[in-house]
Structure formats: C-alpha cells, structure tokens
Amino acid sequence: MRKPLVFVALPPRLYGLFFSPEVEGCLRSFADVMRNETDRDLSEEEMSDKVREVNGAIFGWEGGGLTKRNIAQAKRLKIIGQVGGTVKHIDTETALARGIVIVNSAPAMSTSVAEFALALILDCLHDITFYDRLMRARQEGGALPLGRELTGKRVGLIGFGLIGQKLATLLESFDVEILVYDPYVSEDVIVNLGANSAFLEEVLTTCDVVSVHAGLTPETYHLLDRQRLDLLRPGAILVNTARGDIIDQESLVEKLKGGKLKAALDVSSEEPLPGSHELRGLDNVILTPHRAAHTEEAYGLLGRIVVEDFARFFSGQTPLHVLTKERLLRMT
Known about the structure:
The protein has two domains: about 5-105 and about 295-330, NAD(P)-binding Rossmann-like Domain (Rossmann fold), CATH 3.40.50; about 110-285, Rossmann fold (3-Layer(aba) Sandwich). It is about 35% helix and about 15% strand. It has helices at about 10-20, 20-30, 45-50, 70-75, 90-95, 105-125, 130-135, 160-170, 185-190, 200-205, 225-230, 250-255, 295-315, 325-330; strands at about 5-10, 30-35, 55-60, 80, 100-105, 155-160, 175-180, 195, 210, 235-240, 260-265, 285. The strands form two sheets. Strands 8-7-6-9-10-11-12 form a seven-stranded parallel beta sheet, with helices on both faces. Helix 6 runs antiparallel to helix 13. The chain is elongated and about 75 Å long.
C-alpha cells in the first residue's frame, strides 16, 4: 500500500528543533516526506508547487502558509498540521469548507507558559528582579520595600483555556482564591479546577493578581483598556503571557507611571519592543521577550503531537487535537 505524501514547510533550522530523530522516524514510518529545504518563507507560487500532490502538510512559525489559491490547487490535501498554536497564516475557512482536518500542538506549550506566568507572579510579589537590579547597580543599602506572599491572595485569570487551567492547578498549593473570567468555558470546568467564575469587572476590582491567558481576537483586542485598567486595585499585579494587544499598552504605561500597579509582560503590542519604548525605563514592570513557551520540553512535544495526530488520521483514527470552526474563532 502506498504511503501518504506529507510536506513539512518548516525551514531546516526549525525542523531540527521540533523534529527529533525519533519524531522524524515516526513520521517517515507511515508517510513519504517532502521538506522545505530553503531557510525562508516560501512564496505562494512555491507553496502551490509543494502541496499540489500532497495528502498532508505541516506548518510552523516560519516557512510560509496556505492561501485560498494554495488549497484550491492541493486537490489531494486531507489534513493540515500546525507546529504550535496560531494558524493565522493558513486560510482555515477555505480548508474547513473543503473538509480538510486541521490540527495543532498548542497543548505542548501549556505547562511552560503556565509555569512562566507563575514565576512572573512570584517575581513581582517578592521583588526578585527589582533586588537583582539594585545589587548589580550596588544600590542595595538603605530601606528596601517589603515583599508579599502569594499564599492567601485572590488571583484572577482572564481566559481559561489549556494554559489558564494549568496555572490554576499550579496555584493549588498556594491556598489562593481563583476567579476566572471566560465566557466560553463552562461553570463545571471552572469549579472542578477549584476556581469560581466571575464577571471581568469583579476580577479587576477585587483580585491581588490578574493574569491574562485569552486568545487575541476582535473581541479581546484592548479588552483591558484605560477604563478597565483603572478598575485594578492599588498594589495589584498584572501579568500578560498571552498577546500584547489584549491590553491597551499606552494606557498601561500611564497607569504604571502612577506607581500603584506592577506588571510583568512577556508580550507587547509591537515585537520586538522598540529600544526607546517607555516600558524599558520603568522599575515597576518586568519585561521578557515573548519566551514563555520556549523550553526544551515544549519543543520536544511541538512536533511530536502533530506527527502523532497525522499517524492517527492516516490509520483511520480521529486525531486528538482537531481545531473546529468554533475554537478557531477564539484563537490568537
């Protein structure tokens, strides 16, 4: 029996990160594989040539995407895989209308991002980065601010998908009260993870820590605008490991300048953050360059999850990580 033909669009330097010899061996055990041998995104014309005869195609953060034209010319394409979460570079509407299955490996990143968010929360509460800056500047003498414990605090989670749910489990040992704002997650799911659902305004006005885990959609763009940022209680900590544009960054800068708020941002509206941006000069914000998901463990799973779902599909089984139209509407 002839093996299905699968094209992998990731350029060589990323292919090696996500497809270990074991994962590549698994893929080649059930499929013939074509690869993008360039170190760049393929043009629309080049992509059409690559996918014209394939049965499956795997994409990533680089290497190019699939347009409506590409999909129209890929007559034999049955399944699309995304190494990672976002599928904005793929015309998913056209693919789904054609009956093409779409899978991704977003679950691979949930633990890494949740742990990173927890680390940022603890850093802000205990002023770890602030003290490090003082030590390096030899300015640690004199009166220093007191830190705060996480134990017993009220934590608000905006978005309760895989990452928000994982963070909730990590918070269990800190004896915190968790409030969740996510209109798309059932009350049962929230309660079963030891949290309570709440309106966004309640989360912002009553929580000591607010951590953002929603996808960026037209609905969540600037969800935390100037008016809602003003609802945060004095001394609150705002953590964002999701997408920068969920928060009105200009309004956040003004709020931070007032000194009554701390923030930890792994993401920003413009990435990379411009070197002259005001955020870089504020002591009450921790900045990291969108690295929450970048761990050895996550990278090891990103390619594996997609390959295993392709193996299920081509053996007649249902993949585990299928993206539906409803889920795509709420994704970054």
